[in-house]
Design brief:
signal; N-acetylmuramoyl-L-alanine amidase activity; single chain; 9 helices; MurNAc-LAA_cat; EC 3.5.1.28; 374 residues; 6-stranded mixed sheet; 29% helix; hydrolase; 2 domains; binds zinc ion; 5-stranded antiparallel sheet
Length: 374
């Protein structure tokens, strides 16, 4: 494994894990600047809040963080006028582009700070996150709806194969697993959500595979768009919360855990963690993601996806991500989770002592994920 990937592996294993220092700046005092009707905050404020340094990262990017390598370190990498944003080299598509003012200072939308950056950097401050006991696996399509197709396979079948492998892994790891379908049958999107919403202490993982006319390849992970935002997959601006928005903080944490594990372990192209308002993401009362494991339209990826080994690898990635998510949600503020991320090279962190047990401030606007019960 090249050195770079080894470093990345160590970084990603800790991306959702490490306790942040007690914030020194009162978040409520941060001045906001309105740009194109969107509220922005200077990155300098964020840098001070997280006790980050200016770092010499990749050319053309502005990078802040604790360090570019080493266990437990985090860094944020951004470009002016771009929604593409990296946390420890994991690709996120922000809801609003990063801005740079006339003085050369960078700004990030307050919404992206609250809905992406803070829950990912400090998952231990997400309020009311449930202790995951049940995983709802939703193999996309089925029956008369084959999904994407190529000469070798139907997406519905491929989704089910990966889902069954994931079920076996999660069951072995002690999770209760519910499948929305275990055969080639058709279910409406609402039926899938209805199954998910029967359970408590659960997460919802929909498994799909992609197709495009071009040569696109790689893995992307979708989670619900926050209210007041749009994306290419959520074009209509909504000002009201959907049921799934009660999980905004846990949604992004789950997406980050699964997506980063998948990118790292497959070496696939990182197409990013993206926002959508797909039906299966709008209504679950649990943290929910839609995972796209690769492009059936890309000959190279189609060959891989058709193999039992790669399907197993995808299932293992998702399983590791879910375990990392559960561990991160189980961490108390000021501590790291005792459970090790099995299968990663991070090893157990159970013996680590963290200097502070003081509860930090919550960035105004909240990392709280209040429960919505129908
Ligand atoms: Zn699909």
């Amino acid at each position: 494994m090249p050195k770079y990937r080894t470093i990345l592996l160590i970084l990603l294993a800790s991306i959702l894990w490490t306790a942040m220092p007690t914030p020194a700046i009162a978040a409520s005092d941060w001045p906001e600047t309105s740009i194109d009707g969107v509220s922005y905050i200077k990155v300098e404020r964020l840098r001070a809040f997280y006790k980050f340094k200016n770092l010499q990262g990749d050319r053309g990017y502005y990078t802040i963080g604790s360090a570019l390598s080493g266990k437990g370190n985090r860094f944020l990498k951004m470009k002016a006028d771009s929604q593409t944003f990296y946390i420890n080299n994991v690709h996120f598509e922000l809801s609003h582009p990063v801005k740079r003012n006339a003085q050369g200072e960078y700004l990030i939308s307050k919404l992206d700070i609250v809905k992406v950056i803070d829950p990912v950097l400090r998952p231990q401050y997400i309020k009311n996150a449930e202790n995951v006991q049940t995983v709802i696996i939703d193999p996309g399509h089925g029956g008369h709806d084959a999904g994407a197709t190529n000469s070798a396979a139907h997406e519905a079948d491929l989704n089910l194969k990966v889902a069954k492998k994931l079920k076996a892994l999660l069951t072995r790891a002690g999770f209760k697993v519910v499948m929305t379908r275990e055969a080639d049958i058709f279910l409406t999107l609402q039926e899938r959500v209805n199954i998910a919403n029967k359970y408590e202490n659960a997460i919802f993982v929909s498994i799909h595979h992609n197709s495009s006319r071009g040569s696109s390849k790689g893995i992307e992970t979708f989670t619900l768009a926050p209210k007041g935002t749009t994306s290419p997959y959520a074009r209509t601006l909504r000002y009201q919360d959907l049921a799934g928005n009660s999980q905004d903080s846990t949604n992004i944490a789950l997406a980050t855990a699964v997506h980063s594990a998948a990118i790292l372990r497959t070496g696939a192209e990182d197409r990013g963690i993206k926002r959508a308002r797909f039906s299966v993401l709008c209504s679950p009362k649990h943290p929910a993601i839609l995972f796209e494991g690769g492009f059936m339209s890309n000959p190279e990826e189609a060959r891989l996806l058709n193999t039992d080994e790669y399907q197993q690898k995808l299932a293992e990635c998702i399983c590791v991500g879910i375990k990392n998510y559960k561990a991160a949600m189980g961490a108390k503020p000021g501590s790291v989770p005792a459970q090790s991320a099995s299968g990663t090279r991070s090893g157990s962190t159970s013996s680590r002592r963290i200097g502070t047990s003081t509860r930090g401030q919550t960035i105004r606007g909240g990392t709280s994920a209040s429960r919505t019960r129908p």
